[in-house]
Write a structure and sequence with these properties.
heterodimer, A: alpha/beta, Rossmann fold, six-stranded mixed β-sheet, 6 helices, about 30% helix, B: alpha+beta, 3 domains, six-stranded mixed barrel, four-stranded antiparallel β-sheet
Chain lengths: ~230, ~450
């Protein structure tokens, strides 16, 4: 399981003549198997933090050390390999491939792993979709699609699962169900989860809460007694 | 790079995408198929048309030279002298008499009918007839009629015709209808080469009958046709210039005129048409192929561009650029290979139609030497261009998209910065048209329209 350290990470974007600083000297630590929630308003740098952690973007400076390897300076091919074998993504709008069934969406992720994978059928059963294996995304509800996305992210047994607003496009109850699935799987598999959200209620289920603002870490709070999703007042 | 082979589920996505977007892919496939079909029809039709004509010429021993003696008559021995000219394979002496035929009892004047003699006891060795209907001449009062003339005037074998020769009206029976290489295009002469089948026809009759009716004696002739060895495809045939010089020398001091094949009515018209249309066919072949390849490229590029977010998702999942390109080039390759294959077959079949249409217009029907050999190297070249072009058209935009960092590709594309054109108010247009016109002016290179719009704006 991964132990992740971000040290003084800085990431800027050039928008025409303006330079936008998305991450401004961010330093955080995530322990193996932790369920971490990153909170912050729009434009605070949450998604950029997730992208940098997941190897989708490289920082301008600073270190991102995953299991002793600094991924900040990796070349494109090695970053792809990092994403392929070590990271699973869950997106706000699910991003399932519409012409593949639930089983095939999960299967695509599973077949890429070199570390072995969960059988797609089993992992879909664990997220409660064993009766929807051959359904296409268009035939599933939003909550079901997000559960397929969770299964897809986990199928390849990544050390790190990154979720960007996973409940952002779901109703409250469906959001609770999806978070419950994620939390259960986090406990069962010991995989680290980093969930980015602007919904502060979700912070109550985390082992650790990181608050961002204007690209900087405002607070890091450890939570020794996290709630279950269905115990939270939404 | 990791993962050289295509992932199983990515392959499934290919088929799923093809199935889900079959309308768009069908449109692209049709562009490829039709482009290849037209490419495969035009140029090969030109090649085969030329080949069909040459084969017809060679099968029927079409003359390489014609010596017209005008009103003068010459002794038949002159033909032996022509045959003895070095480089001449065969020669035939003939009587060519301008007569007429009364096609309608109420007709005041007969239609022109050129009567050409054939030997009584054998087929002519030059300008042979190809009998398409009926039979050969078996009696003195029978004739063979040019098929295009017969068809135009609805004459069939067995019909009786009132033929005028030397101011006499005689009844003749049509023994058969023929193609003749000398009159594939039934023109009167090189100054009036185009067919007028309602007023000019050609018939072949026995020499003895024609000589008797025309008052010609002792086997005299007024026309000599000469055939050289070799194939028409290598025209001008070897030694043709020398033969012509010999013929000029042989007929020196007479009113005889020596014409090469291309100087005769039919030979000239056909040569001009084939050689005129051939570059066009080659040009249009290229245009169709190039056009379809470009359109395919643009359409496939648009299709792949619309996959931007999915490409971002796949890249985020760890799909390599190579796997991604392999995935997207499969669309192009599938479309290019199947479209190119079907298009090539359709093109070959279509070339029959192109040839038949053109030859029917030119020669009034299918030629005896008709041939449509598949132009394999040419079709193969088209297939390779289309298949490779489509494959690249699928792979290149995927390669471009895969260069975008996945984090960026996952977001919707940033709208282009508005330029001055998109800020035109266009108040002189109805509101519903303003956005459409702004879009056109922004995207297309229509400078004069822009100038016009700006002038109206002021």
């Amino acid at each position: 399981m991964s132990h992740i350290v971000m040290r003084n990470v800085r990431k800027t974007y050039q928008m025409g003549t303006n330079t936008i600083t998305a991450l401004d000297g961010v330093s955080i630590e995530i322990n193996a198997g932790e369920f971490v929630v990153v909170l912050g308003p729009s434009g605070s740098g949450k998604t950029t933090l997730l992208n940098v952690l997941g190897g989708l973007e490289s920082p301008n400076s600073g270190d991102v050390i995953v299991d002793g390897e600094n991924i900040a300076g990796l070349q494109n091919g090695k970053l792809t390999a990092y994403r392929r074998h070590s990271v699973g993504f869950i997106f706000q709008f699910f991003n399932l491939l519409p012409t593949l069934t639930a089983l095939e969406n999960v299967g695509l992720s599973a077949e890429m792993s070199k570390n072995g994978s969960y059988p797609p059928h089993d992992i879909l059963e664990r997220v409660g979709l064993d009766d929807r294996l051959d359904h296409y995304p268009g035939q599933l509800s939003g909550g079901q699609q997000q559960r397929v996305a969770v299964a897809r992210a986990l199928a390849k047994k990544p050390a790190l699962v990154l979720a960007d607003e996973p409940t952002g496009s779901l109703d409250v109850q469906t959001g609770i169900d999806v978070l419950q699935v994620m939390r259960n799987l986090n406990r069962e598999t010991g995989q680290s989860f980093v969930v980015v959200t602007h919904n502060s209620a979700i912070a109550q289920i985390a082992d650790r809460v990181i608050r961002l603002g204007s690209g900087k870490v405002h607070t890091v709070i450890e939570n020794p007694t996290p709630f279950e999703p269905d115990e939270v007042e939404w | 790079m990791v993962g050289a082979a295509m992932l199983k589920n990515l392959r499934r996505k290919t088929f799923g995408d093809l199935k889900a977007n079959w309308g768009q892919f069908l449109a692209v496939w049709l562009v490829v198929t039709l482009g290849t079909a037209f490419y495969g029809a035009m140029y090969p039709a030109g090649v085969n048309m030329r080949e069909s004509l040459y084969r017809t010429y060679d099968q029927l021993h079409y003359m390489d030279f014609q010596v017209q003696l005008g009103d003068a008559l010459m002794e038949p021995q002159i033909v032996d002298e022509v045959r003895a000219v070095p480089g001449v394979e065969n020669a035939e002496g003939r009587l060519v008499i301008e007569g007429g035929v009364q096609l309608d009892a109420d007709q005041d004047y007969p239609v022109s009918l050129r009567l050409i003699s054939v030997p009584d006891d054998r087929e002519p060795s030059v300008n042979q007839n190809d009998i398409t209907d009926g039979r050969t001449i078996q009696g003195p009062d029978e004739l063979l009629l040019l098929k295009s003339f017969a068809d135009w005037n609805e004459i069939e074998p067995g019909d009786e015709l009132r033929v005028r020769v030397n101011d006499q009206m005689l009844t003749m029976t049509v023994a058969g209808l023929v193609f003749n290489p000398e009159y594939l295009v039934a023109g009167r002469n090189s100054t009036s080469p185009f067919p007028a089948l309602s007023s000019f026809g050609v018939a072949w009759v026995r020499y003895s009958w024609l000589a008797g009716q025309s008052g010609v004696e002792n086997g005299q002739i007024n026309d000599v046709v000469v055939h050289l060895p070799g194939e028409s495809s290598t025209e001008p045939k070897a030694g043709a210039d020398d033969v012509r010089e010999h013929l000029n020398a042989l007929f020196d001091g007479t009113n005889a005129q020596v014409f090469a094949r291309k100087q005769t009515a039919s030979g000239g018209v056909i040569d001009a048409n084939i050689n005129g249309v051939f570059p066009l066919m080659r040009f249009y072949s290229g245009v169709f192929l190039l056009g379809s390849t470009i359109i395919t490229g643009v359409l496939l590029a648009r299709l792949v561009e619309s996959e931007r977010q999915r490409i971002g998702t796949l890249r985020a999942m760890g799909v390599t650029r190579r796997e991604l390109m392999l995935h997207y080039l499969t669309f192009g390759a599938f479309i290019g290979i199947t479209g190119g294959l079907v298009g090539s077959i359709l093109g070959y079949l279509n070339s029959f139609w192109v040839m038949n249409t053109f030859l029917h217009y030119l020669a009034g029907g299918t030629l005896p030497g008709f041939v449509n050999t598949p132009q394999i190297p040419f079709l193969l070249l088209g297939f390779v261009i289309v298949a490779a072009g489509s494959t690249v058209a699928g792979a290149y935009p995927a390669w471009v998209q895969s260069r975008t960092p996945p984090g960026v590709a996952l977001r919707p594309a940033t709208p282009k910065t508005p330029n001055a054109i998109s800020q035109l108010r266009l108040r002189f247009l109805p509101p519903v048209l303003r956005r459409a016109v702004r879009g056109i002016l922004r995207c297309r290179d229509v400078r004069w329209v822009r100038r016009w719009a700006w002038s109206r704006e002021r």
